[in-house]
């Protein structure tokens, strides 16, 4: 990722902080609408999970310019996801839902360049999570 992409992602995420709870809930509403098969992976009351999602996004967004410090947290998150039953193909559903949610939250500010930067970041981090998840499953 370039410094410019990281800066754009961080600035766009900062602009969403005032609506963080709503965005988390919007994300899960969309995820369960477009991928109902994923609903059973989550608790019935999704509100705490929506907050965790936004907190984890904040950690990742703020750590993009310090990947060596961020990667241990990403790897630990991947290990927990294996325990929850997350499969490789679920990451694509989450990625498309994240981009949709960002588009809703940012409106016209979600330009093609910004979409591309977020997509690159998600692909990079989810790629790490998928690789770690495969290692964990292999060791089971």
Report on this structure.
This protein has 140 residues and is an all-alpha fold. The protein has helices spanning 3-16, 20-34, 47-63, 67-84, 90-106, 112-139. The longest helix has 28 residues, at 112-139. The mean pLDDT is 93.
Helix and strand arrangement:
Layout: H1 3-16, H2 20-34, H3 47-63, H4 67-84, H5 90-106, H6 112-139
Helix pairs in contact: 1-6, 2-3, 2-5, 4-6, 5-6
Q: Given the structure, what is the number of helices?
A: 6
Could you give the count of β-strands?
0
User: What's the mean pLDDT score?
Assistant: 93
Radius of gyration from the alpha-carbon trace, in angstroms: 15 Å
SSE run:
HHHHHH
The proportion of strand residues reads: under 5%
- Which structural class do the helices and strands define? mainly alpha
Envelope shape: globular
Low-confidence parts: none
> Could you estimate the helical fraction of the residues in percent?
over 70%
The main sheet comes to: none
**Cα-to-Cα separation, first versus last residue:** 33 Å
Keywords:
140 residues; mainly alpha; 78% helix
Short overview:
The chain is an all-alpha fold. It has helices spanning 3-16, 20-34, 47-63, 67-84, 90-106, 112-139.
